[in-house]
Amino acid sequence: MKKIVYLDNAATTAVRKEVLDEMEVYFRKEYANPASKYRFASAPFAAVSEARTQVAEAIGAASMEEIYFTAGGSESDNWAIQGVCSAAGEGHIITTAFEHHALMNTCKSLEKKGFSVTFLKPSAKGYIDPKAVEDAIRPDTVIISVMYANNEIGTVQPIAEIGAIARKHRITFHTDAVQAAGHIPVDVVGMNADLLSLSAHKFYGPKGVGAMYIKKGTKISPLIFGGMQEFNKRAGTHNVSGIVGLGKALELACEEMEEERERITGLRDKLINGILNNIPHAKLNGGLEPRLPGNVNISFRFIESEAILNLLDFKGICASSGSACNSDSLEASHVLLAIGMSHEEANGTIRFSLGRYNTEEDIGFLLESLPPVVEKLRAMSPLYEDFIKSRTL
């Protein structure tokens, strides 16, 4: 079987063996509902509590009771915005034009219900100006939401400064930390966050489970009505094995973070330099610093990303053209358009996202495989042909 070089870790990651081992017991041996009152349920109940503590410690929360388990990052983002707006009844939302669709589409749905939304535009390098956030505040602003690290171009935002502005104006502040948690430090106190979203499958935990930090005293409506689970804010039987996996995966990721950040950043920079130095008309999207350790987002002029991905796939290389949540869309990435790129450039963009299982060999294989792929596609491109002709006139 052809070796798979997986470079789409921003889309999802492999579950670590240590994590899977912790989860397994709660599928078959300790399978009781943790909300039950008999002794058989004590082990699952304790496991959920331990995972809650692991998450709280990983992000610097004051108490495990500020951690709420969800079905993933999209659910957490939805809850943050809808829950705060539902509690407020009406008002104004400030967010950005390059958030994940889980947040952007939630805001757009609330616009139809009478809320007003300001979508702040990032700079050409992919950063949000804190001053622009403060300038957008109105007397009726109820929530500010700015993602910690962008899922497509990897730029890390000045969250602590933005959070301080929200705190000064007594406005609830949420950050989508789905791409950041487990990869770069997260400190909800230092970030002045009232709400924070994360998802297990982005840091080598299971799919279908996430968490939200809700600072004590934050006004937010329940997500799901029913039973008393999650401190009476999200009903439904706990996904015990998934929650255990989330807690363990985040704990391990934080323990190894410093060493992994250095290693993966080295691979990232080798890949960026290798592409830019060997493939003409290639461009890195988003500023290099601060940036997620494993994010490489590159535009290749005159050709389309779908064709590049197909040829790379034939060689066993997995990458993406942007967010996996929007992979079926033929529209140009809203993230790339938000930072001022043309539709042509956006449509020729590839995201390589590196993770803990990637090696120097993987990067070498990609750097060997990619130039002939780009050259082959440009040889068939009318756009590239026109460009060459224009230079010879």
Verbal overview:
The protein is of the alpha/beta class. The chain contains 14 helices and 12 strands. A 7-stranded mixed sheet has the order 2-8-7-6-5-3-4, with helices on both faces. α4 (101-111) links the parallel β3 (92-96) and β4 (116-120). The model has no long low-confidence stretch (mean pLDDT 96).
Q: What keyword list fits this structure?
A:
single chain; 393 residues; alpha/beta; Aspartate Aminotransferase, domain 1; Aspartate Aminotransferase, domain 2; 2 domains; seven-stranded mixed β-sheet; three-stranded antiparallel β-sheet
- Shape descriptor reads globular
Span between N and C termini?
49 Å
Content of β-strand:
5-15%
Indicate the CATH topology of the largest domain.
Aspartate Aminotransferase, domain 2
Mean pLDDT over the full residue set? 96
Highest CATH level, the class of the largest domain: Alpha Beta
CATH-derived architecture of the largest domain? 3-Layer(aba) Sandwich
For the CA atoms, what is the radius of gyration? 22 Å
Q: Please give the largest β-sheet.
A: 7 strands, mixed
Strand order, main sheet: write it out.
2-8-7-6-5-3-4
List low-confidence stretches: none
